[in-house]
Write a structure and sequence with these properties.
The chain is α+β, with helices and mostly antiparallel strands. Helices cover 15% and strands 48% of the residues. The strands form two sheets. A four-stranded antiparallel β-sheet has the order 4-3-6-7, with no helix packed on it. A three-stranded antiparallel β-sheet has the order 1-2-5, with no helix packed on it. The longest helix has 19 residues, at 2-20.
Amino acid sequence: MLKITGFLLAALPALVAIGEASAGEADVIDARLTPLGGDRYRIEASVRHADEGWEHYADAFEVLDENGRSLATRVLHHPHVDEQPFTRSHSLTIPPEVAQVRVRAHDSVHGNGGQELTLPVPR
């Protein structure tokens, strides 16, 4: 019995790490840009993440230009445990020289990662 207990104690940090990461990274599964006039746009992004509560949840999505420069970040203020996937919107300015944007999601454990989408900027 001591060997089993010793084994379990030795494996405990790895098991905890697996549990912490079980929700995986946040994925952007759909997005659309709507022109609002001038260089202003509304982005709607649908994010999927196995939110587990306040300890691990999708906490933002970000819009980047072709050079990886951040144009906007939409902070997600709470977990969406029972609402998956979920869609949120944000308004932003996109400079006229930007032809496409990349949308990525962020979660509170892994940071940036998961599936991203690239969208052409409608002019």
